[in-house]
Design brief:
The chain contains three helices and no strands. With 66 residues, the protein is mostly helical. Helix 1 runs antiparallel to helix 2. The longest helix is centred in the N-terminal third of the chain and has 24 residues. The relative contact order is 0.17.
Length: 66
């Protein structure tokens, strides 16, 4: 596995953890509407980033190992 692959995997784990935390906070009925909108925006951005990470093709080094 290349250093790029390792970095991308770490980013993926961090984004998934942050998404889970924000989702729990979003479901908290005690936060005001502005906070909920901010959390919703963050969740959308995290989801988009996760989608982009998933679509990144394997590195050329990995495909050469076959």
């Amino acid at each position: 596995m290349t250093s790029t692959d390792t970095m991308l995997r770490e980013v993926l784990v961090i984004l998934k953890e942050e998404q889970a935390c924000l989702k729990l906070w979003f479901e908290d009925t005690s936060v005001n509407e502005d906070v909920r909108r901010g959390i919703e925006n963050s969740l959308t951005k995290i989801s988009e980033a996760l989608g982009k990470l998933v679509r990144i093709p394997p590195s050329t080094n990995e495909s050469k190992r076959g």
